[in-house]
């Protein structure tokens, strides 16, 4: 597994600007990751990412850098705003979010920054909240997972565990799901999920929101089943509530009683410390009735030198 790289090289910034410009030229109207230094494919830029969010560039810096680096970063971003490409894409604002600092403060470099934009992905709309939390409400590396759910959802009853802001649920209802049950301990996240469904004009009678601890609520969860699809996308670590390897197996153990015959499972893990093999072996141990089908690709823009350090989305049926 690749080691964490903490230093960044100011001399590598021209590569960053070139890549951001190249990817910006390719985007249409949807939200998109433009640069993913975290995949360690760009030496000296491992702690930088850049997203295109409702005609705004958001650059995330994950480790503290010196003033000279930040000044050159801001200068290069301003140069992009003076380009014909920026005019063509109708760019509105540029911001740098300091993810290493307390509260992840957002520094606006250009324009009037919209902190609560509505964005489009795969024809679905999502309300984001930028700068108030580490994560803005939609994990962009999961785009192809949401696409798969949307394609497979028609007529199905779906269980979405660790639902967060209900991105999978929105995709599922958009794809014709009969009903989706979203479970997450954070009521505030589920409330945002409800708003996301409203944004898309969905019938909320087809969606259930359970603000519960999964491990204390199997009875309630089972009541809405059996499910034709179960989505498991836990946080890598949630203090006091979820220890990844131990608790993941507890969920897999329940699948037999939750699922309809012939159902599908999307099992995800985004911790560099947990491999895809862990999911395959754990499923064999805890839910032998299910067979590994394939690993979903991650979006090309999230290329990683170590595929096992990146998001792993595993399909079983």
TrEMBL record:
**UniProt keywords, alphabetically:** Methyltransferase, rRNA processing, S-adenosyl-L-methionine, Transferase
Cited InterPro entries: SAM-dep_methyl-trfase (IPR019614), SAM-dependent_MTases_sf (IPR029063)
* Top-level taxon in the UniProt lineage: Bacteria
Pfam families attached to this UniProt entry? Methyltrans_SAM
Give the Gene Ontology MF terms in alphabetical order: methyltransferase activity
Would the keyword Transferase turn up in this protein's UniProt record?
Answer: yes
Annotated S-adenosylmethionine-dependent methyltransferase domain ranges read 32-316
Q: Which SUPFAM superfamilies match?
A: S-adenosyl-L-methionine-dependent methyltransferases (SSF53335)
Q: What is this protein called?
A: Ribosomal RNA large subunit methyltransferase K/L
The organism is: Vibrio hippocampi
State the gene name recorded for this protein. Answer: rlmL_2
